Amino acid sequence: MPNQTIALLHPGEMGAAVGACLLARGHRVLWVKQGRSPATQSRAQAAKLEACGTLDEALGAADVVLSVCPPHAARDLARAAAATRRLRGIYVDANAIAPATTREIGRIVEAAGASFVDGGIIGPPPNAPGRTRLYLSGPKREAIVALFAGSHLQAIALDGDVGAASALKVVYAAWTKGSTALLAAIRALAQHEGVDENLLAEWKLSQPQLVRESDAVPAKVYKAWRWIAEMEEIAASFEAAGLPGGFHSAAADVYGRLAAFKDAAAPPKLDEVTEAIRSGAKPARRRARA
After folding, report:
1. Which of 278, 274, 229, 281 is nearest to 257 (CA)?
2. Structural element, H or E, at residue 78
3. What's the CA gap between 117 and 46, in Å, rounded?
4. pLDDT band, residue 148 (cuts 50/70/90)
């Protein structure tokens, strides 16, 4: 397809890598400098993305808008984009949000005059081929698949309507990130009761993979602040389907107690992680569900 201009909102760890994939395909990739942190600015510059001063400026030039942001910000970002009255072309929401939230964002975007595509990213930042997939649903999904053809990010069109890509992301993360929170809480309880060494000894005999997985928790907690809202979106998805959402609401509380590790210079020790959970630190504020 002809080269396109994409407004990337915003170049975080994942977004910058996605933007680099688009740039490697010959597309023009814009980002909004206004209000972004020094870390975001550094990532965007390293990826050689083109800076715009304001959201209005970026949207006015863009054929496609790609939203890759923390889950709690996805709705507000769509509203801000719509309020500029500069939306056109295709708006892709690739955030870890509930299908119902996705459909709401779709209505906001379409009312502003753009087409909407639902996206869900599974895997790490796409810095190498074969590790990361972008699932897409909605009438214009094939146009977005074409943007990434031959890049490190494999774009896959789903047959379902808007909401299908988000639903796939939700059920995938319900296990991967939900089980991480569960393992961290289990180790915290075992330490509280003085049986952690006994638990590890039993796991080594009967469930050796759980020793490895729980020992890997500290390397992940720098993202805990971001996963609070994702767990809430997952809980809302379960409840909307008439299923219990309490497990992932509890996982949101676990990650809320770990949110202070966001800016840690190095991964904490497991004992520091479990102590933060046991301390009962007040979880981060939950976003009210619409």
Report:
1. 281
2. helix 74-83
3. 28
4. very high
Tokens standing for residue 260: 């202070």
Amino acid (one-letter) located at 60: G
Length of the chain: 290
The ranges of the chain annotated as CATH 1.10.1040 are: 167-278
Encode pLDDT of 67-90 as tens digits.
999 999 999 999 999 999 999 999
Structurally, at CATH architecture level, domain 5-160 sits in 3-Layer(aba) Sandwich (3.40)
- What fold does the segment set 167-278 form as a domain? N-(1-d-carboxylethyl)-l-norvaline Dehydrogenase; domain 2 (1.10.1040)
Residues of the chain within CATH 3.40.50.720 domain(s) are 5-160
Mapped to the 3 state alphabet, what secondary structure does 2-52 carry?
CCCEEEEECCCHHHHHHHHHHHHCCCEEEEECCCCCHHHHHHHHHCCCEEE
Q: Which residue has the higher pLDDT, 96 or 38?
A: 96
CA distance 44 to 131: 22
Phi-psi region of 91 (alpha: psi -120 to 50; beta: other; left: phi over 0): beta
pLDDT tens-digit series, residues 252-271? 999 999 999 998 889 999 99
Answer yes or no: is pLDDT of 289 > 80: no
Tell if the pTM clears 0.90, that is, is over it: yes
> What is the distance between the alpha carbons of residues 149 and 151, in angstroms, rounded to a whole number?
6
What is the average pLDDT across 27-55?
Answer: 92
Buried b (16+ CB within 10 A) or exposed e, 34-66: eebeeebeebbeebebbbbeebbbbbbebbbbb
Per-residue confidence (pLDDT) for residue 25, from 0 to 100: 95
